[in-house]
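Worked Example 4.2. Consider the chain below.
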Amino acid sequence: MGTLNNVTVRQPPIGIMQAPPLEKPVIDHTLDDQSILITGGTGSFGKACVRTILERYNPKKIIIYSRDELKQYEMAQEFTDPAMRFFIGDVRDADRLKLAMRGVDYVIHAAALKHVPAAEYNPMECIKTNINGGNNVIDAALDANVKKVVALSTDKAANPINLYGATKLASDKLFVAANNIAGDRPTRFSVVRYGNVVGSRGSVVPFFQKLVREGATEIPVTDDRMTRFWITLSQGVDLVLKSFERMQGGEIYVPKIPSMRMTELAKAIAPGIPHKIVGIRPGEKLHEMMCPADDYHLTLEFADHYVISPSISFSTNQDFTINALGETGKPVPEGFQYSSDRNTEWITAEQLLQLL
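Applying the procedure from the previous section yields the following structure tokens:
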């Protein structure tokens, strides 16, 4: 037990923020001799995911599908395994995506426009990539008879107030509903939703670190009440890969992860440097949500995660209280919501520094 801004909090349980180093554990062989396509695969998540797959499995092919040839070139220098393939293309390009997905067994859809203020100023660009692009991934996966698709979501998709969150909510709905249009095809779709990734490209942690290196005299904090969910890259990858084993199709997976106040984050990274409250940016929330109270009747609690089951009925009528691994979940109490300010698990400044 500890205190954080006079609030009593519990230390994160083992496996939440204190992830063990990546190694080849004794696990299933789901991805052995399989072809995996990762959209947006040159990003922080894609690189970590590729590294994990190569360490744990013996894949037939890992196809990186993304737009930036320079990032693909740089990634190809880092990952020289013969299973690696690099396919230049945009998820907005349906024909190119269908070509890339021929013979693919598993898809991880990580491509998205994610910058909240940029989405507010460029709404149609965000819609074209996050909604239309997501629908193209679904169509291509169905055409190619892909086995399973996991789409990455965000806490901003729950009760969204910004355009980015709204597009990801629409994307989540598309991927869940895709199970209903699959018909007799084998393809199944699920979604993984989580919060801020510690140290990922473009996140606040490297931004604060850059300010410290440059000798900043103030650290900008939008609001001293602000809280966020936090997860490490390796835990995000583990959650996605585990979802391939757990999924029946239609689930939204939400990990149990800790929260942290942004003021505490700033103190941890820049001790001794005063904060300057700069106000909430366009489309920004004080606190993030991952399981809305309005969805409590669809939400199931498992040991280390929640599942939001589909609001529509599929022809198979699966029992989502038992997943494909035999893990069992139970309904959450009436009115339950999982938000960063009401979380029971918090990460301390010391724990954050250990991760960094």
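The longest helix spans residues 123-143. The CA atoms of residues 162 and 283 lie 4 Å apart. Compare this with Example 4.1 before moving on.
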